[in-house]
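Researcher: For the annotation table, I need structure tokens for acetate--CoA ligase (ADP-forming). Please keep the output clean. Sequence:
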Amino acid sequence: MFDPSAVAVVGASETEGKIGYEAMANAMEFDGPVYPVNPSSDGDLFGVPFVDSVTDIDDDVDLALCCVPGPATPDVVAECGEAGVGAVVIYAGGFAEAGDEGERLQRAVVETAEEYGISLLGPNTSGFVVPATDLLCSFASGAEKLPEGNTAVIAQSGGIAHVLAFQSRRQGRGVSAMVGLGNRANVGFTETIEYFDGDDRTDAIVLHVEGTDDGRGLLEACRDSDTPVIAYKVGQSDVGEFAESHTGALTGDHELYTAGFAQYGVPTVTATDELLDAAAALGDSPVPDGPNVGVVTAQAGPGIIITDRLQRAGGRLPALTAETQERIDGILPGVTYTGNPVDTGRPMPEFGDVVTAVAEDAAVDIVLVYELFEQSVGFPVDALDGLAERVEKPVLFATDGIEEDMADDKAALAAVDVPVFETPERAADAAAVLARYGEMQAAGTDSEVVADD
């Protein structure tokens, strides 16, 4: 599915705006053969001749994008099986999310897929995107503009998958993959987590979860993943009927899910931007040894916000050792505050030395730096370059200022893999996720399932 040699678009259409046209247009970006399949069409589409069936393609097609209406899907899946196609994306709705008749239709599709050993993404999905290989198996516009990053987005909702991917683009981060699971006919959370855990381009996995009937599989896949997993479980209030009509999801007890994720070492968040920020922090950083955060700020106000929010979200601010405080006094005599957080009062050339001193403190597991941009000083890029790897601790950086003035410095921090955040709150939330993750890893995770939903 995610690494095909050739792709077929079944139900490809010459009419702009139809899923069959948009899916074919996106698929043509792939650096490999793409075949339009439609027995009702003649000629060619994007310069490629139509074929009547996937069984007529004289090539090893691994992936088919199914753009036909729901009732025609079982026949298409059967043809794919006969042609040796191993994976099918089903865009159409009207399956398990639509009541008893839809459930019967989905069972028929799954039975056919199981007969031929086919992996199904969907039904009722907008597909997936792998930017590194220009594998754009989505019918949404703008998919070709998603940059490559190191976060795999696995969302129950295709809409939320795209929301997260587009947000990541605006943040200058990108994704290793974006996957909308839809109804999870036979490819769901378990299979995709396992796949992207083994993907060299993926350093963090984020989940959008409405609900699942395989809570055990989901939690065990998260626990067994060497790649950090962060989850956003929606449904704290009563959205059960709406969610079930969306992807056939049974939302279940929100606290049960949250407790299950916690037991299995998965930090949870409550917003899409928080999910991506947590992925940036975990994906670009060493795993922290615990929840203790050392904060260095060049301005007291943001430092107070960070300190308050961080502690309320599960982070701890340990006292710095006497040796570290003496070291900071030696760097900046009369510094505003040498406790934790360390407040230097304003940026200065020695700011990076102060950050280094805090990072090297044995009491600190995570370092969070806040510095409003001052053009005459810039950011301490040289000091931060390689610091996290050397001390084996995450080092996060937050700032604000005039975008065009600090663009080069922000790019320089990104180039040396320092996660950058644009508000005190977002930085604190990301550090808090690291703190919770570090505490979970240090304590070990409970191997018992809370319950299946």
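Researcher: And a one-line annotation?
Model: Confidence is low (pLDDT under 50) at residues 242-248, 445-453.
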